[in-house]
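Notes from hallway chat w/ T.B., transcribed later so I don't forget. T.B. wanted the structure written out for a chain they're using in a teaching module, and asked if we could keep both sequence and structure tokens in one place. Agreed to drop them here.
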Amino acid sequence: MSNSYGAGVARLHVLRTSWQRPGVQRAVHDGLTLVGLAVLLLLVLWSPGSDARAYWSFSPAQPYSGLEGDSGVFMYSPVAALVSLPFHVLPFNAFRLLMIGVDMSCLVYLAGPWALAMLALYPVTLDVSAGNVHLLLAVAIVLGFRYPAAWAFLLLTKVTPGVGLLWFAVRREWRSLAIALGVTAALVLVSLIVTPGWWGTWIATLRESSNCSTACPVGPVLLPIPVPPRLIAAALIVSWGAWTDRRWTVPVAAMLALPVVWWMSLPMLLAIIPLERGGQAPSSPTAPGIRRPFWHIIERYRRGQPQTALTRTPPPPHA
């Protein structure tokens, strides 16, 4: 058991050493970027934009005319519906290309020079092709640590990823929590004045769509688990992360708490990249990547200190 564990650690160390060579990183980056360019060209020339069509085509008279998982059905809050309405004047193809541009901007923010390379990953391509908002959710999570008002976007679109606000509650950052909830409440109030009838219909639609978390008519879901147990797990994850100062737990918990977790939901995890780099995307293909505490465990094991590998260094006492 000990020998096999040591061999595994040694292999991981070899992989790490190989990856840290600038030539290897550059080759991987350039290869994936070429694939990403080809994918982007295909997306521009042809992509279904199924979710983008839902944002573009709903009827102002009755925006909620279907259930979660039905093709082309708008499911976001009346606030999101009001924001989407001005884009209805565009031809659909123009709106589809606009959504691709927005998604690519999000990828640049999250992954820096690796943005095009990310398109080589199937879940990212799927999300950009559909024109969904998962990449926007990832950006909102990153921005939300500095600008808590960004959390209104999560609360007024997918709703349940708002469990990430427990970060502020556990850490007693009451001002940030108040800003996030206050901005959301203000937007809701405005929409209630403008379109009071939409809210009741939207809430009723959400209730009727609760079964889609385990089975949807448009295809298989990634995590066929009902929302309540996933919400509990997400709350525990983000609470632990807030208590131990691990920001990466917030996008993990937010994705887990989505009403439906599709394959295209996985790009939300790209928020981990800037969060682990202090809010910055990688500056170059050869720049240091995400901080990896696990590598310190490997180094300690190689130095003959496996018993302290999982011990966290306590913070210095306050003067």
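Follow-up for T.B.: The chain is about 60% helix and 0% strand. Might be a good example for the class.
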